[in-house]
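quick one before i forget lol
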Amino acid sequence: MKPVSRPPRRDSRGEHDATKLVHTGVPGGALSGTISPPVYRFSTVTYDSVEEFDTAYEDRYGNLLYGRLGSPTTWSLEEALCDLEGAADCVLAPSGLAAIQLALMACLKTGDHLLVADTVYPPVRKLCRRVLTRFGIETEFYDPLIGSSIAALLRPNTRVVYVESPGSGTFEVQDIPAIADAAHQKDALVIADNTWASGLYFRSFEHGVDVSVHAGTKYIVGHSDAMVGAVLCNETTRERMRHHWSDTGTAIGPDDAWLALRGLRTLSVRLEQHQRNALAVAQWLEQRPEVEMVLHPALPSHPQHALWKRDFRGASGLFSFVPKGASEHQAAAFVNALKYFSIGASWGGYESLALLAKPERSVSGRPWQGERSAVRLHVGLEHVDDLIADLTQGFEAMKATPR
């Protein structure tokens, strides 16, 4: 066969997000007219001559060469994600954590210093302590509310500042533009976990981020049926990310890529409903006598609400609350009693989930609120009245449980 090239990026300037999500990544060329790209399952691509193979190999990221290096299915997803967030390039990974590892390892080397927000997704902390240390990379965890004062922590060998906003479980909002400005003055890159807001509600590259990572398993897929990670890059980081992605054999299967692309088409309507439902639940929880605090950035009561309102275009369905005066045993009874909120580690799907979060076990810097547990909720697409009724009976179970 003759080399099959990746189609050129579609010009989506001026389009609204909902329109962009529907029309980006649609097959062109010989497949023009098909609404959804086929699932290309293959490993080997054969050519009729050495010359044609060599031509394809010269641009192995832009031509169809080998299954690990991409297919029209993965190209469509990469284009769609780039369009959504305004990225220069995108590479795909088999999970969100794999995407985080890929981004960090592409930007760090032995002897480098890494700054990580203290409230990150807990597996990132393990990645830093168990893996990066073996390569001679030092990690320092910083207060997520540090803002521009992070300049005092930047060393000559600081190469990356890793941000996650809102924080995992505790939902602090970081001043990413101020952190990025300080980092760039010292030639450090900023990598952001943008899973909570997706590229829809937070434009990472417009706020100074160099690399945006996503657990596409969450809102991008949206149906709890595929594992996908994505690393989106600006012009400065795209070459090193693409090379590291290829050199380490990081790839995803075509079926997962297709499921992620299908989910992406409805992201705008799903996320809007998640936001609406979650905010209604959060406002209801604020009025409950059993609740000490609700950790939702879109609530005016949130300490960084003004910062969230400045930088974000919306909120997702994930937040936490702290039961008032409840022991861990009582908080567990609340979660165990829920009917529509299943107990599960993930989030971002259409279903509601609840989990007993224990921030004091992972936060190492600025102390969490004593030894209290928080309940993390992912508010799904069920009717909000049913969800509130479910939470009401959960509180009754909590109060009936001895400390």
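fyi The mean pLDDT is 93.
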